[in-house]
Amino acid sequence: MTDVAPAPLFTDDYWRDPFAALGELRERGPVHEVDLPEGGRTWLVTRYADARAVMSDPRFVKDFRNTLPEEQRASVPGIPSPGGEMMLLNDPPVHTRLRKLVVKAFTVRRVAALRPGIETIAASLLTGLPGDEPVDLVAAYAIPLPTAVICELLGVPVEDQDAFGEWSRVMIDDTGEAASMQANASMSAYLAELVERKRAEPDDALISALIEVSEEGEQLSTNEIIAMAMLLLIAGHETTATLITSAVERMLRDPALRDRLAAADSDELRAAIEEFLRWGTPIAQAPLRFASEDVDFDGVVVPRGAMVMVSLAAANHDPARFEDPDTYEQGRDTTGHLAFGHGLHFCLGASLARLEAEVALRTLLDRFPALTAGTDLPVERRRSVLVNAWARLPVLLDGER
Ligand code: HEM
């Protein structure tokens, strides 16, 4: 029997163990209305099969204007700029046009060419870190690595990268709406200025390429370029940092796994990363969608116009899809995990994220094979509905404690 009472999900229990809290909800039924910590409510989809279906079902849309009757659509402002121009927040045909413009920069082949640059960044971040006192791996390695990679890809100068990391952390964390809007405004003002600089002095990075495309007659406004750069920054670094951190956290709790991966060949390491993606699910809940009509889930109706979130974490731990799902199991068949989403919005940066994680773990384990925890585990999770992350992860690089 499905229990449809609104469920208090995001409580202390959730932050202690999101998978247990989500598991209970999934047991109770396929969709639930839950309160969001920052206010408001959303429906949450918990089962693997439904999660996959929702992400490829055109009845679930990103732009909520599409859920309104035709005659009212033009009269609502929609998502404020520059968010409104992000492909992640749009449906076809706008989404299709924007995605086509950047997809070439993220093909497996283009991404593979970035490997030497990523190896250099990883090695230089580890150089000079103390081996015998706790180092916060999140701040020293997991965050700056993908930030540097995406900034390089876009053409953001090195000296501005710390500011990016901070703006984006504030925007993703539940730090309150005022702080988040302020960070959003700072980042978009910075990017507007950067686009002007690139117009005057183009380079061979992505922002210049997008400017060139728009000057060749494609319909790409300055706001759309800013939105694209912002999306890539936000989508590309916190997530990858979380994947790296969750892999290391798992190894700190299981030195045999650490030793095994330190000695692993590329295939085994890549397989481990897929299991870290499934088991840790860096994006716990995929960003919002809206129901454009009433949709029935096993007798529970999500009404037209309702906000809907897909819990990728719940789906990736659904025992109907993965046996013994809460256990990290090296070598299991992870095919079909939903950590990168599914359907039209499937993660554009999936190959890049996989490569960054592989290089990050390989470089770390080569340099510090005896790495251990620098504090009691588990460490506290960040209070973010979207990312399944740790605020900090102290490690002793040379081991012992
Ligand atoms: C979309 C996960 C890394 C760029 C998504 C979505 C997920 C996801 C679940 C779908 C969201 C939805 O359907 O609402 C992840 C994870 C990552 C990661 C777990 C790291 C482990 C990256 C990187 C980049 C990136 C490195 C780029 C540099 C994007 C973009 C979208 C997206 C642009 C929107 C695609 C669209 O709307 O068509 N990602 N991502 N992601 N991701 Fe990632």
Instruction: Record the strand order, biggest sheet.
Output: 1-2-8-5-3
CATH class: Mainly Alpha
Distance between the termini: 50 Å
Q: How large is the count of helical segments?
A: 17
Strand content is: 5-15%
Q: How many domains, in number, for the residues?
A: 1
The residue fraction in helices comes out at 40-55%
Quickly give the structural class: alpha+beta
General form = globular
Core attributes:
Cytochrome p450; 8% strand; binds protoporphyrin IX containing FE; 10 strands; 401 residues; three-stranded antiparallel β-sheet; alpha+beta
Overview in brief:
The chain has 17 helices and ten strands.
What does it look like?
- With 401 residues, the protein is of the alpha+beta class.
- The protein has a single domain (12-396), classed as Cytochrome P450 (Cytochrome p450).
- The chain is built from 17 helices and ten strands.
- A hairpin with a 5-residue loop joins β1 (31-35) and β2 (41-45).
- The chain is globular.
- The structure holds protoporphyrin IX containing FE.
- Protoporphyrin IX containing FE binds next to α13 and α17.
